[in-house]
Amino acid sequence: MVDPQLLEILVCPKCKGELEYHEEPPRLICRTCRLQYAVKDDIPIMLIDEAEPL
Q1: Are strands 43-44 and 27-30 parallel, antiparallel or unpaired?
Q2: What does the DSSP 8-state code read for residue 12?
Q3: 31-51, pLDDT tens digit by residue?
């Protein structure tokens, strides 16, 4: 699981919007951009090029 303090400060790198954390599969979702960012070994991969569409 991603550190809750980290989740409080993370924003979408594309639009700077709020992210939602989902545990299964682990990912961060931006509803504004409709992108999801993977979380590998409890580390969010916050690269726009690595994001997948919802």
Answers
A1: unpaired
A2: -
A3: 999 999 999 999 999 999 999
**Spatial separation of the C-alpha atoms in residues 53 and 3, rounded to whole Å:** 24
What is the residue type of 15?
Answer: C
pTM of the model: 0.89
Looking at the chain, the number of H-run helices and the number of E-run strands are 1, 5
**Whether pLDDT at 20 is above 90:** yes
Which amino acid would we find at residue 40? K
The identity of residue 54, as a single letter, is: L
Domains contained in the chain, CATH given = 4-53 (2.20.25.10)
CA–CA separation, 15 and 29 (whole Å): 12
